[in-house]
Amino acid sequence: xxxxxxxxxxxxxxxxxxTVLNGGYAGRSQQDVAAHVAELAELGVPAPSRTPCLYPxxxxxxxxxDEVPAxxxxxxxxxxxxxxxxxxxxxxxxxxxxxxHTDRDLEVHGVAWSKQAGPDVLGREAWRLVDVADRIDDLxxxxxxxxxxxxxxxxxxxxxxxxxxxxxxxxDLLHPGTVLLSGTIPMAGEVDQFxxxxxxxxxxxxxxxxxxxDYRVRRMPEPVA
Length: 225
Description:
InterPro entries: DUF2848, Fumarylacetoacetase_C_sf. This protein is α+β, with helices and mostly antiparallel strands. It has helices at residues 30-42, 104-107, 111-116, 129-132, 161-170; strands at 2-8, 11-17, 19-24, 53-57, 62-63, 67-70, 75-76, 79-85, 93-100, 102-103, 120-122, 127-128, 140-145, 148-154, 178-181, 197-204, 209-219. The strands form four sheets. Strands 3, 4, 5, 8, 9, 11, 12 and 15 form an eight-stranded mixed beta sheet that branches. A hairpin with a 4-residue loop joins β16 (197-204) and β17.
């Protein structure tokens, strides 16, 4: 199991990660999701058999890091929120900012494979879900690729954390050590997603509080083969 540490209102909370799941095609409007699936199919990305999707990935891919190594120039992030189950109680479910770094070349061969090729980068701060649950739809997600804003939206665009908690409970996955990423919001097509850095911000307009995760993308040496 792989530990993550979060600052939760000044308290340090350590979570030993045992299960990581990535939500996909997780827009609140499944009609819009269907249109997005059709657009991706035209680009060669295989359509899922159902939506929303849930992709298990290796636990070591959940990271708090300042640098992501990339094997080529066509990898990029996605602005997401993450649920982190830190303990058995309702107050132990944490919410933080996250960025799902994905191999876009591999994605056309299989979305599940592409999720295994890059890390899920999480913020170092978190909120208790119960403390923001009454205004969850007002929270905002923003992402910058190489300094240019590429994503901006609210959590109202995505399936709710409580939807995913119910899904985890039904699948007997709601246990300490589980991390779930939400799926993402639309990207601005005019911004180059294949940038040398990514930054995601989860913000609460009611309090002005923000949680961020940001990292550099470092190209690995070419293989010798």
